[in-house]
Specification:
A: mainly alpha; Non-ribosomal Peptide Synthetase Peptidyl Carrier Protein, Chain A; globular; B: 415 residues; 11-stranded mixed β-sheet
Chain lengths: 90, 415
Amino acid sequence: MCEESVEQCCIAIIAKSKLIPADSVTRERTFEELEIDSLDKINISFDIEDAFHIQIPDESISNLRTVGDIVDGVLRLQQHAAVEPAGSAL
Amino acid sequence: MNRVVITGLGCITPIGANVSEFAASLWAGRTGIAEFGLLPEAVEGQNGIRFNRMASVFGFDPDQHLSTGVVTATNRTTQFAIVAARQAAAQSCLMEHYAPEDIAIVLGCSCGGRSSEEIETAKLYYRNARVHPLTVTRTMASAGGSHISIDLGITGPVMNLSTACASATHALGTAFHMVRSGMSEAAIAGGHEAPLTFGFLRAWDSMRVVSPTACRPFSADRDGMTLGEGAAMLVLESLDAALARGAKIFAEVVGFGMSADAHHITQPQSDGAALAMKKALKDAGATPDQVAYINAHGTGTQANDAVEAAAIHKVFGDRAAKIPVSSTKSLHGHSIGATGALEALATVLALEEGRLPFNVGVTTIDPEIKLDVILNEPRPGFQDSGEPDREIALSNSLAFGGLNAVVALRRYRLA
């Protein structure tokens, strides 16, 4: 699990995956601007699932457009996991 | 240059352990895609895989076909290759009519002996156990060709091509060029693959391109591919030699085209696929107007089917929407390096029997693709159309990494 905030952790994962400075990754940046293609999205989602111990549904990945979408999605999945029994996040 | 014809067919697939079974499933629309349940390697009762269907070859017992020594030395993929090659060679009476050195073997296999590699690696990494001494020979992707050559006594050129999902089509096209040029008098061409291992399934699961339901090529609600396994082999020889020895001719191979997208490791691009189709037609000395059927790569992913449809429109223009298209992956699944051979086999059967295979599982054809997708039942084709020159079928293979291969086949008629 990330020690920092969800947002900081997501940004760090994206920056590491794309080999770009973390300060260039902000909530508002779109994947298009950051040159994140479909394969990058799969890679980043994989790392985020590991970091937060969550499972991101396929349909959610295809709807991701911005860094903020990822952060909000992680928060939603975490909330869902908090109120549902383990293993039902999907 | 020689005209090249197909005089022998063999296969072992999820929809049939020989060509007659395969054909029966093809025409009945009987799919080999089924639920696979809990895998032996599952951890704590969970496969950890989002999908639960694949297309397996059920009931294959290598001991029924091969000596104990060969079974011990080989992986399932090679066992498939030997069995399918024997069927094709026997049907064509290949070994009775050609000197061993005049026959080539050109195969497609992308994954090699995947299960042997995974099992031995797991033993080594987690238990520091000794690695089986035949691991190397079980896992090398060229083992299929080697074992066929040993089994049948073939001493001509033998090679394996590995171009992911286009491997077998690259192999068939290469063998076609070898026989057409006279480099080899005859060839066994095809593909084999047995990649349905725990690690492979988990790897594809992580890519999120496998259907949680079943492969439905060109359907508006398609949601991915379905993995498969198997082998298919075709015997190629010159028309003159086949006629001289009175061999049964199933179809003629007339063209082969290859291209690379030079674009992306997973995202296909229509220009590359279109280029391969154009090159296959040029190689055949044919025009787009002569094509009467396309056996599409048709994986059932959103990206492939949309891009392949766009490529077909680029090649065929106004006629694109009128050419019957189907993807037999909805029946036999996607067997990676072997799939092009299974699809070439389906296309040869279509040409020989004068009817076209159909897609299963399609709910509504994706309106964006604007193709004539064959649904529900086989459709008459290649005959009685009043268009005697329209007797060419294309079999497309569009691999990850943008490697495209297309073979053009033609209905054979006695002159």
